[in-house]
Design a protein that fits this description.
- The structure is a single chain.
- The protein is mostly helical and 113 residues long.
- Helices cover 66% and strands 0% of the residues.
- It is built from five helices and no strands.
- The protein has helices spanning 14-22, 29-38, 42-57, 62-83, 93-110.
- The longest helix is centred in the middle third of the chain and has 22 residues, at 62-83.
- The radius of gyration is 14 Å and the shape is globular.
- It starts with 13 loop residues before the first helix and ends with a helix.
Length: 113
C-alpha cells in the first residue's frame, strides 16, 4: 500500500488499496509474526493503513472514509486482544504505544464534528 507514504495525497491505485483494506483475509499467523519481528501487531498496521486511506478519501467520499474508519477500529479490536493478556498485562509496550496512537487518531476521525 502506498497510502502511508503518499503524504496524504491521492495517488494511482488508491481505489485498489481501499478495496484491499475493506476485504482483507489475512492469515492468522501474520498477527503474532509481525509482533515478534516489527514490535507491532499486524492488525495495528492495517488500522494505520485504514486511517491513512480515510484521511485521503475523506474529502471526496464520506461513505468510503466512514467504512475505512470502521474497519480500522475493527482491526484495533484484534490488536487489543493480541497486545494484552487476560489479566490486562501489556505484552509488548512498543506495540501497545503504537496501537494507542492509531486508536486515538481513528477515534478523533470518527467523532462527530
Amino acid at each position: 500500500l502506498k497510502c502511508c507514504s503518499s503524504g496524504g495525497e491521492v495517488y494511482d491505485d488508491l481505489s485498489t488499496d481501499i478495496a484491499h483494506m475493506l476485504n482483507r483475509k489475512d492469515p492468522v499467523f501474520f498477527e503474532t509474526t509481525c509482533l515478534a519481528y516489527f514490535d507491532a501487531a499486524w492488525s495495528t498496521m492495517c488500522a494505520e493503513a485504514c486511517l491513512c486511506l480515510a484521511k485521503i478519501t475523506g474529502c471526496n467520499s464520506q461513505d468510503e472514509s466512514s467504512d475505512l474508519i470502521k474497519e480500522g477500529l475493527k482491526c484495533l479490536e484484534a490488536s487489543a486482544k493480541t497486545l494484552k493478556k487476560e489479566d490486562g498485562t501489556i505484552v509488548n509496550s512498543i506495540a501497545h504505544s503504537y496501537y494507542s496512537q492509531i486508536l486515538s487518531e481513528l477515534e478523533n476521525l470518527s467523532a462527530p464534528v
